[in-house]
Specification:
The complex is a heterodimer of chains A (327) and B (447).
Chain A: H1 2-10, H2 16-37, H3 40-64, H4 68-73, H5 88-95, H6 103-134, H7 140-149, H8 155-168, E1 170-172, E2 175-178, H9 191-214, H10 218-226, H11 231-242, H12 244-260, H13 263-268, H14 276-287, H15 291-311, H16 313-326
Antiparallel strand pairs in A: 1-2
Chain B: H1 2-14, H2 25-51, H3 67-75, H4 79-103, H5 109-129, H6 134-157, H7 165-193, H8 207-214, H9 216-248, H10 253-261, H11 268-278, H12 289-296, H13 311-337, H14 341-349, H15 354-365, H16 367-382, H17 386-391, H18 401-410, H19 415-446
Helix pairs in contact in B: 2-6, 4-7, 5-6, 8-9, 8-19, 9-13, 9-16, 9-18, 10-13, 13-16, 14-15, 16-19, 18-19
The chains are: A mainly alpha (327), B mainly alpha (447).
């Protein structure tokens, strides 16, 4: 507290009007420079690539709204001369199940997998990140690098042993240390998927959150410590609120990653708990050439991540940048 | 207010600032001695327990609840009900942890008892929740008690302030236990398993690795993975860089950015279906875009995903390029914003062309970001699974390591081969990540 107050006294008074003027001028100069550097050729090329990149998605999106009989016999581009749309594909895709689950049912599973996982991973990683950033102990640096370096372990390497660990437990020389969870046959059990996803998110999550939490000015921490806050309070009252932007960015990242995951779900989820991605994957077999169903299914899987992506794009990009430029 | 602040400041100045590890010398040696003896005892107990012959009729012992019974109970609820339930329970656990962290280090008899109880109860509960079997229970309880006592002792001995062992352990242990159980232990086990046969019983030496390089499935998965790892990052970075450079000087930046960035948020399954539709081949009228274009120009339609060699691999690989370009573009566009505009203007005054400016000013200015993008995309393409799984299922030699590994395990139950392929991914990824870390270190030193 005292440190902050002292700080405030020594810093010169901040002139708002002056700052605004400087900012305005900077913007003007920048946009002038931008205009001088811009060229019509660049615009044309950018548009060309942009359209090229969008056409495949657009094609499937249009197909998902065309009646099945038409999309099986004519290309989606004919829709511009012969428009005919229906919403029936989506209804059929949601309800026509394959062997076990329909896409509609597994939509709920996807939610039940993704939301808790995101919270678990962030909370556990934030706790560890706080310890790495603000607690002094021997071997802190080495331990932190070790956790970060665990990213070299591809999840493919961890899948099978972790699966056996979950199903059969751990036995050393015939002595049961951990008996296993035996959840393969429990209906709607997401425990193994939650745990697996949380574990696989750990190294990156700890690293990113640590980078952010370590940058919180030490004056704030010291002030709280002087005021008598312990580590628990400090974490809850100071670190969490200040780190919210970083946590939000990583949360979105993790959410989309888990929602889109196919591999972890394929290995760990019991048949009644499969998420949309895995259900759609197995339905591609039985739907075969029915593009009107496949296309609708593909977009049903995309809806949630796309909403998250568009609503929280700023955070998403920020999380990505933190991940890419720092790790 | 000012008085209390002053008092607090005084108090703060009384307690020495961290590091506070250096206490009175005799007490420290005592702490070390006790901790060492405790650890030796634990180790002895573990060895003793593990070397005991298993008793055949050991009954499971539990407190009446365990992780298992909890998960079985929660599995009985509907998927949507499970979300709030599990979140509330998790919140309670985290809150308990934070309360312990907060109150454990305080001085006073009440806190002393809290500490004492917690130190014994937490390890004990942890072990009981894992529901050990009868014959191990005795040893495990003994280990729990000793480790609880050790924690307590070391904590009491630790000097007041930052370096609290107990708090540190509470903060770190959830993450560290998860990482040990879920990454370190499986990775070691996979490496060991890669030297054993299908069933995991018989040692076969390097045979699985020989298989990976000689059997067609293994061989093509290695070759294709290398093709992916070389071409995906190059294509994605070049297109992403070009696009970032173009949109910097184009109108409608935001929309253009979103168009290319969007596929990055798509699920692999959806991506695969989108592109399978583009590559679609059939008799009669073509509804797949690519074949329709070929036919429109008077060519013969091609079975893209079944044409081997190289064609199908590149068809699959391009889907990943399509997704990763957005990532490269966003990162590089942000890096370009960091290139000082004065430098560009100065170069322009010197009469350079746009291309020269780009190549000699912008690209060196974003060098570190370029390296990050290249390595990140390479690592991602080494691990790719879903595109191959959905689009071809590995047929016509289009398989890659990440897919073949799962295929060997799930379809053929061939754990040795699967493990060897996973280890190969690990071997390919490691140098890249190490390089990445070294680069980051350098960057930070510069900063």
């Amino acid at each position: 507290m005292t440190a902050v107050e002292d700080d405030r006294k020594t810093t010169p008074r901040f002139d708002r009007a002056e700052a605004r003027r400087v900012a305005r001028n900077t913007r003007r100069h920048e946009s002038e420079a931008q205009k001088r550097l811009s060229s019509p050729l660049a615009t044309v090329l950018a548009f060309a690539i942009g359209i090229l990149w969008t056409i495949p998605t657009l094609g499937l999106l249009i197909t998902s709204f065309r009646p099945g009989a038409q999309s099986a016999t004519s290309g989606w581009w004919t829709v511009f001369t012969n428009p005919d749309f229906t919403l029936g594909n989506y209804q059929e895709a949601l309800t026509s199940g394959g062997t076990a689950l329909t896409l509609g049912e597994s939509f709920l599973n996807s939610l039940a997998i993704t939301i808790p996982t995101t919270v678990f991973a962030l909370a556990i990683a934030a706790l560890a990140a706080y310890a790495f950033a603000w607690m002094d102990f021997k071997g802190r640096g080495i331990l932190f690098v070790a956790i970060f370096a665990l990213q070299i372990v591809p999840i493919q390497m961890a899948l099978v042993p972790l699966l056996t660990f979950f199903s059969r437990g751990l036995e050393i020389n015939g002595v049961g240390i951990f008996p296993g969870l035996a959840l393969r046959d429990v209906d709607h059990s997401f425990a193994t998927v939650w745990i697996a996803h949380t574990i696989f998110a750990m190294p990156l999550a700890i690293f990113l959150l640590h980078n952010f939490i370590a940058e919180i000015p030490s004056e704030v921490i010291e002030a709280a410590r002087v005021d008598g806050a312990g580590h628990g309070q400090m974490f809850f009252r100071i670190i969490l609120p200040l780190a919210t932007p970083a946590i939000a960015s990583f949360a979105i990242f993790e959410f989309i990653w888990v929602w889109n995951d196919l591999l972890v779900a394929t290995i760990f989820a019991p048949t009644s708990s499969l998420p949309m991605t895995q259900t759609l994957n197995s339905l591609t077999g039985s739907w075969g050439d029915k593009w009107y169903l496949l296309s609708a299914g593909a977009f049903l899987v995309l809806v949630v991540p796309l909403i998250v992506f568009f609503a929280l794009q700023r955070f998403f990009v920020r999380g990505l940048m933190a991940g890419a430029t720092k790790g | 207010m000012s008085q209390t602040t002053a008092q607090k400041a005084e108090k703060a100045s009384e307690t020495p600032p961290p590091p506070r590890a250096s206490g009175k010398k005799p007490s420290q040696t005592l702490t070390r001695a006790v901790v060492t003896v405790g650890f030796i005892l634990i180790a002895a107990l573990v060895i003793f327990m593990v070397t005991r012959p298993p008793s055949p009729d050991a009954l499971p012992v539990s407190l009446g609840f365990s992780f298992n019974s909890f998960f079985v109970w929660i599995g009985g609820l509907g998927p949507l009900v499970q979300i709030p339930v599990v979140l509330v329970i998790f919140g309670v656990v985290v809150a308990a942890l934070l309360i312990l962290i907060e109150f454990a280090p305080r001085a006073g008899t009440g806190y002393f008892w809290l500490r004492l109880v917690a130190c014994f109860l937490i390890p004990f509960l942890a072990f009981m929740l894992l529901r050990p079997y009868q014959n191990a229970a005795v040893y495990i309880i003994a280990i729990a008690l000793i480790s609880g006592f050790l924690l307590f002792w070391a904590d009491l001995r630790a000097r007041e302030g930052a370096g609290y062992l107990f708090q540190m352990l509470l903060f770190l242990s959830p993450a560290i236990i998860m990482v040990l159980v879920g990454l370190v232990y499986p990775a070691i086990l996979t490496i060991i398993q890669s030297f054993f046969d299908k069933t995991g019983k018989e040692f076969v030496g390097w045979e699985n690795y020989v298989w990976a390089f000689t059997n067609p499935q293994g061989f093509w998965s290695v070759i294709n993975t290398l093709i992916w790892a070389i071409f995906v990052p190059i294509f994605a970075t070049v297109v992403g860089l070009a696009y970032a450079a173009f949109i910097e000087r184009a109108r409608g930046q935001r929309v253009l950015k979103i168009l290319v960035f969007m596929p990055f948020a798509f699920a692999g399954v959806s991506m695969s279906i989108i592109w399978k539709f583009v590559y679609d081949y059939r008799q009669g009228e073509q509804i797949g875009l690519l074949n329709a274009i070929i036919v429109a120009f008077g060519g013969e339609p091609i079975r893209w995903l079944d044409t081997w060699p190289l064609v199908n691999t590149f068809c699959l690989l391009f889907v990943f390029v399509w997704a990763q370009t957005g990532f490269a573009m966003v990162v590089l566009a942000a890096a370009m914003k960091g290139v000082p505009i004065e430098q560009l203007e100065a170069a322009q005054l010197d009469g350079t062309t746009a291309w020269q400016r780009f190549w000699n000013v912008t690209v060196p200015g974003i060098r570190s970001s370029l390296i990050v993008v290249l390595t990140t995309v390479t690592i991602a393409s080494l691990k790719v699974y879903d595109i191959v799984a959905v689009m071809t299922g590995g047929r016509s030699n289009s398989t890659v390591l990440g897919f073949e590994m799962v295929n060997q395990q799930q379809r053929y139950q061939s754990y040795g081969h699967s493990a060897a392929l996973a280890v190969l991914i690990f071997v390919f990824v490691t140098p890249l990540l190490v390089y990445n870390i070294i680069q980051l270190r350098k960057q930070r030193e510069v900063r």
